[in-house]
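Aim 2 progress update. The chain analyzed this quarter is reproduced below.
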Amino acid sequence: MTYTPPTALPRDLLDNHDVQRALAVDDFGSLFRIARDRAGISYSKIAAECDIKPERVGTLARGRGRITTFDKIVQIADALRLPGALVGLAPRLWEVNGTPAETSRAENGPQHVRRRTILQAATTTGLAAALPALHRPDAPPRVTEAYVVRLRERTARLRRLDDVLGGGDTYRVYLGEVQHTKGLLRQQSFTDGARRQLTAILAEQAQQAGWAAFDGGRTRDAVALCEESRTAAQDAQDPDLYGNSLAFLAYESLVDDRRTAVSFAGDSCATITERTPSTVRARPPV
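Predicted structure tokens:
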């Protein structure tokens, strides 16, 4: 006899418009809320079956944070009995009625299916192995502006990982970049101007890691990294990066402390001048 977990969603609920809409954007928090309100499945049961802390389930259901790691999405799919095709996975073992056509549709389906295939490869082999072009260049004995340009290009390439992976999977990659750059600033010697330019890259990397932390539900880490970004931007005398760090802090403070968020947002807007690029002006809304 096949085991059916106590969190399995009723089949008719899977056809519900709200459920379909939540699954289309990987909004598992809304799915948890629907499971409780419409199927009577408690958050404590969801937490136990999905191996998520009960308070985290409640936080997700209130719209704070996201589930982005491949392993956790698989666990949720099995616990709630979500057919693989609905969450970008191949048919699960418990889908005894799966057909070859359904399997084909899952493998060649919409973009969120293909994205999860990439995510699975990255989880299995490690991001460094899955993305060999992103190996970090060796630092010279004396850091030059040319080397800093190569690191800036690498940072830009790594930023594109957000197009296919969520914060739960990119956070450690981005944090590793922050730690490496901080090590260079502590240990290496520099040509004229290279140190300030590398400090600006650190500010950008810390913002990147902070946003990934926030996306992955690591709120404290996100705030600490954005504070670090603000300090580095100030040291690098880069007003655009400084303003962006304030904007990120405003966004991350919005849920818990609106007054502080508004203050950060005001300070961020105050850094805008006629010379500020339009792409920098388009900061996270508050």
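The radius of gyration is 22 Å. Confidence is low (pLDDT under 50) at residues 97-133, 279-286. These observations will guide the mutagenesis experiments scheduled for the next reporting period.
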